[in-house]
Amino acid sequence: MNIGIQLLQYTLSGITIGSIYAMVAIGFNIIYNSTGIINFAQGDFVMLGGMTAVYFYKTLHLPLLLSGLSAVLIVMCVGILFERFVIQTLKNPSVITLIIITIAASILLKGGAMFIWGKDAYILPSFSGDKPLGLFGATILPQSLWILGFLFLIVVALAGFFRFSIVGKAMKACAFNRRAARIVGINVNRMVLLSFALSALIGGIAGVIVTPITLAHYDRGSLLGLKGFGTAIFGGLGNMPGAVAAGIIIGLLESYSAGLLSSGYKDAVALIILLAVLFFRPGGIFGKKEEQALKTF
Amino acid sequence: MKRLFRTSYVKAGLTFIIALILLMVLRNPYYVGILIFLGINIIITIGLSLLMGYAGQISLGQAAFYGIGAYTTGILTTKLHVPIILSFPMSVLLTVFIAFIVGIPTLRLRGHYLAMATLGLGEIVHIVFNELISLTGGPSGFGNIPLIRIFGIELDNDYKYYVFVWAIVALIIFLSLNIINSRIGRALKAIHKEPTTASTLGINTSRVKLYIFTLGAGYAGIAGFLYAHYITFLSPGSFSLGFSVLLVTMVAVGGMENIWGAIIGTTVLTILPEYLRFFHDFDILIYGVILMAIMMLRPEGLYGIKIPLKRIRTND
Amino acid sequence: MTDILTVRNVSKSFGGLKAITDLSTGVREGSITAIIGPNGAGKTTLFNLISGIYKPDCGSILFKDKRIDTLKPYIIPYLGIARTFQKLSVFPNMNVLENVMVGRYPLSCSGFFTCALNLKKYREEEKDIREKALFWLSFMSIEHIWDKKIREIPFEKQRLVEITRAIASEPELILLDESAAGLNITETKNLIDAIYKIRELGKTVLVVEHDMDLIMEISDTIIVLNFGEKIAEGLPKDIQGNERVISVYLGKEAIK
Fold first, then answer.
1. CA separation (Å) from C33 to C3, C40, C53, C199, C215?
2. Which of A8, A10, A191, C234 might form a disulfide with A138, Cβ 3.0–4.6 angstroms?
3. Angle, helices C155-168/C120-139, rounded to nearest 10 degrees
4. Can you give the pLDDT at residue B52?
5. Which residues have a Cβ under 8 Å from the Cβ of C104 and sit 6 or more positions away?
6. Are B183 and C92 an interchain contact pair (Cβ–Cβ within 8 Å)?
7. Which residues of B fall within a CB distance of 8 Å from A104?
8. Where are the domains of chain A?
9. Can you give the pLDDT at residue A290?
10. Residue B39: closest CA among B156, B148, B172, B238
11. CB distance B175–C116 less than 8 Å?
């Protein structure tokens, strides 16, 4: 296999995994935009999506489509429950308390998954078969196309939602200025709930569509969440198109370094980018110049 | 007045004496082993509580420093045959040095960003432990770490090691209490609540934060050293993100604002899993439930809670 | 009579907002000088510039003829400048005495090792810090509350603690930012007495205030700011009659 085709191969797999990172980053952004909270459990929403879908498919023998849909809905409900019963009930939490609470949620989801499903890794069948498609000498899995497709769908849907629907605009308003939004009659609490629901939904979708490729495992959430956060920060926290671009870039970098350098250190790539961004340019590559990221909320 | 200055000696000494009494009471070596781990964990969490409770920062990567301390002494003593008397200061110094270097850019961050940066750093170190196979033995780790020989006695069983560990715990408590009650301690508390005001009072907040971060890392490095020469085998699994998160959980559950809180939290979360031994699949879930419950019901932690049995000491 | 503090052509903007424009003024040593002006005039910004929290976009600030606007905030107290904050900024996690002891930070020097090892130097210095803190608390007549948690004492007393903390570092220039805000008449009188006592020690006091009676009574000089510019400077009686000042506060109609 010549180097050109190899590079193409890495590019394709990089875009695939990058799309997942982008989705996780979008999930972070949605909650951050409306609440200023960084949800440490975002990666675990993804994990939960995959695990639940496997459960429905393998154990309850539901058809794949129904399993996926149900899993996504369940994760969305988990997000809603978390917001309602945990976030809502906190009275004026300090930043550390908020951080630890979302960490607690992450631990709960992880612990729950481990308890229910054990420590094995599980797989879902690819949505449209495993036969790789040829592309200029390289191969791409059909599932990768599904992933790209879903990313596109999510981005378009969100863009339309935020731009054209009244609810979406209300959420944007909350992101800009909560007090003002409240004054003009926007139910801020409901917007916060919606943002958690939406983030969880997207996380769940990501989990379902990536499981055929990367498997589902109770412990996968944390690292994915961390990389997703790195992606979000890289693209500028709260910046949707930034998240997509950042995800693709990080996915590509990770894929190239895995292929060309060493696969063991590939996880470190996203982390190094995360640290580099935090240290040198907290606004992200597409974010604002001023270092608003350094301020606490 | 004089009493105030004796207090840190007394408290540290009392802790050691209580530990010795416990040792004489609990003959079962299994329990002794658990308490050795408790002591090691307490050393780390005291450092973490200084960082979190007093200075108001957070680190989700303490396991990395724990691991650096352990691996350094392990590698030095097994591969380079460095005598333990030297590998101890070398491990601690290396841990402290690395903490110092990464601390400089990291501590400029606050809140969630600091948390994520420390998470990322910890995870990178964990990856390095797994990948630098020639040095660390990779995922399978390496063993044959020599035992400590101190004052001519080889620490070859749990009872001896217990005394050694808890003597160090007492020392750490002594040092930490002294810091807390000093101008440095007040500076930390000032930085926690009003960092801008603190700087107008002459406190170089960046430097003080860096020092306390480095100190916490140093404590973790010492704990790592103790771990290495106890278990005599190291693998990356013990120094993962999960353990870093557990450490933060211990401090948060026990009460951040206080090193006794950290000790309580560490005790609860080290002893509890032993009671749940047979519930091995439960453990992460239980941690999550406990942490969630504490954060929602009593975010200041367990310390100071009025139990009919004992009034926990106040005013540290 | 020299100026202990000199502000030379200082400007400061935040994005598009010009907080201070080409401000030049001086504070005479040993005086009680007041800075007044409507909200948003730039008074606290000026304090923040002096404290080193902000850096001026241009111009310079001199303390005892040495430039201080380039220094980091934590150096400033070592030169002899202390301040309080408009939004009360005592430390809720310490008691009254400890709050004041923090004020002694620039006058002490035990480092990490000295403190951790409980060395003699640390013990002696700690004793000294404590004694001096108690001294300053009694200077301000609040030594009886030394062991109270800071949030358990009345607001007025908290303000006094903050001032005590500032004076405990034995500065030559002390900046009081709206210390009288929220105080009733008796409490304000206590504050005035404290300010006079501080001046008697030879210190220079620079206050930002809204309470006009207070200002007129205690100030040697008044500087009036409006929209970041100095519009008047002089003796209280001159400021009182200054038409521009009156119009800024009460509107042009008030002149008639």
1. 11, 19, 21, 11, 9
2. A8
3. 130
4. 92
5. B183, C129, C132, C133, C168, C169
6. no
7. 249, 288, 291-292, 295
8. 24-129+136-221
9. 44
10. B172
11. yes
CA distance B216 to chain C (A): 13
The minimum CA-CA distance between B276 and chain A, rounded to whole Å, is 13
pLDDT value, residue B4: 53
Block residue for tokens 């992450």: A106
User: With contacts defined as CB-CB under 8 Å, which chain A residues touch B296?
Assistant: 86, 89-90, 101
**pLDDT band for position A47 (cuts 50, 70, 90):** very high
Confidence of residue B315 (pLDDT cuts 50, 70, 90): very low
**Which residue type occupies C177?**
D
Q: Which of the four CATH numbers 3.40.50.2000, 3.40.50.300, 1.10.760.10, 3.40.50.720 does domain C81-170 have?
A: 3.40.50.300
Q: CB pairs below 8 Å between A and B: how many?
A: 138
Across the interface, of B174, B189, B200, the residue whose CB is closest to C83 is B200
Instruction: Give residue A296's pLDDT.
Output: 30
Domain ranges of chain B: 2-241
- β-strand partners of A196: none
CA angle in degrees (0–180, nearest 5) for B112-B40-B252: 30
- Collapsing DSSP states into helix, strand and coil, what is residue A123? coil
Task: Flag whether pLDDT at C75 surpasses 70.
Answer: yes
Written as one letter, the residue type at C182 is G
Higher-pLDDT residue of A172 and C166 is C166
Q: Collapse the DSSP code of B126 into the 3-class scheme (helix H, G, I; strand E, B; otherwise coil) and give the result.
A: helix
Task: Tell me how far apart the alpha carbons of residues B46 and B251 are, in angstroms, rounded to a whole number.
Answer: 8
Confidence of residue B316 (pLDDT cuts 50, 70, 90): very low
For residue A294, name the pLDDT band (cuts at 50, 70, 90): very low
pTM for the model: 0.90
Q: Does B156 touch chain C (CB under 8 A)?
A: no
List the structure tokens of C126.
């700690």
- Count other Cβ atoms within 10 Å, centred on residue B277: 8
pLDDT of C221 over the 70 cut: yes
- Report the pLDDT averaged over residues A244-250: 94
Chain A touched by B59 (CB under 8 Å): no
State the Rg of chain C over Cα: 19
Report the distance separating Cα B295 and Cα A87, nearest Å: 11
**Averaged pLDDT, A204-225:** 92
| Smallest CA–CA distance from B281 into chain A, residue | A115
Q: Which CATH number fits domain C1-79+172-184+203-242: 3.40.50.300, 3.90.1640.30, 2.60.120.10, 3.40.50.2300?
A: 3.40.50.300
Q: Which residues of A23-56 are buried (b: 16+ CB within 10 A; e: fewer)?
A: bbbbbbbbbbbbbbbbbbbbbbbbbbbbbbbbbb
**DSSP classification of residue C151:** G
Q: In this complex, which of B108, B127, B284 lies closest to A107 when CB atoms are compared? A: B284
